[in-house]
Input
Amino acid sequence: MNLFWRNTLTLAGAATLTLGLAHAQTPDLSDPPDIEGDVLEDHGSHTLRMGIGLAESSPQYLSVKYFADILDQRTEGRISVDIFPNSQLGDDVQMMEMLQTGSLDMTYPSSSPATTYVEELAAFDLPFLLPNRDAAIAVMQSDTAQRMLDGFEGSGIKALAFSENGYRQLTNSARPVESPEDVAGLDVSGLTIRTMENPVHLSIWETLGANPTPMAFGELFSAMEQGVVDGQENPWSTILTSNFHEVQDYGSETRHVYTPFILMISERTWERLAPEYQELVQDAARKSAEYEIQLATEYDDWSREQLEEKGMQITRLDDEQIAAFQEAVQPVYDEWAPRIGEDLIAEIQEIVESTSSQ
Ligand code: TK8
Output
């Protein structure tokens, strides 16, 4: 075969592989809603730097691309957003601090590490509080949740919208987990589980007999690769798009906590924007958060199936097995409900019940 054809076939092969890999990273996702509204008058130009923790194939990244496109189209490019994925600018805690100092304009952390700013957010960390996605969305879009976003005022951070990180699932490299006893290990030591930097999550895994290790998300892959931790817990789409299946053999569909993301902007950046631009940023944040929830929904089950295809042994838990976990973590409610606020938790449970009765 002459050199021309060999090179051509090689290029074609590479292109096919690339397309294949690119396709393999996402399910058939809904397109973003059309961008509507007139172009705003010229109120100056801004380049917003946004750091996020997840990969370019994640629902988080795809939705902030849509956020950027709305701002670009509605200002004819006068507001542009430079997106830095994969925790390259730091982890959730560090990037929130960068918003406070004004060294970063936007970020998109989980609610769990943000409880240091607004303690009421810890309600979302109570295990099994939100029984299904409809209930979770209703809570995130409620006045109760808006009060939590407003609670950031004066911290240097303006919280714009909630979206879906999702239901957290346990993975580990040691053994299949079907019960709390499998976490604690009867004749072997308890699993060492990385947790987010959040006291309720520490309490959950201590109560289950594990050895919880708080750690920044960006350090997690190498910690699992080196065996520093046995496992972690995150939604299936994060596990897939962060390639955790390469270092985790076992998954358990625990759905033990539903974690929101919070789209945030530095108050210093916000105050530099003209009121018309502020209104646009807030509207684009809400629209991109709704789109992110749509993408996260479309990703969820598909990601679990992809992980199984890639060799992860995933244990689905039946109602009885889930009930065993719920019973085992009841002490977490006993400890944390009074500290978070019984009235707040009652408000959330009322919203949950109102959705289930629909
Ligand atoms: C990404 C994190 C991640 C979270 C975690 O920035 O830390 O495990 O679930 O999504 O926010």
Q: What stands out?
A: The chain has two domains: 44-165+259-305, 169-257+306-356. The longest helix spans residues 275-309. The pocket of D-xylonic acid is lined by residues 53-54, 92, 109-110, 165, 196, 217, 234, 238, 259 (CB under 6 Å).
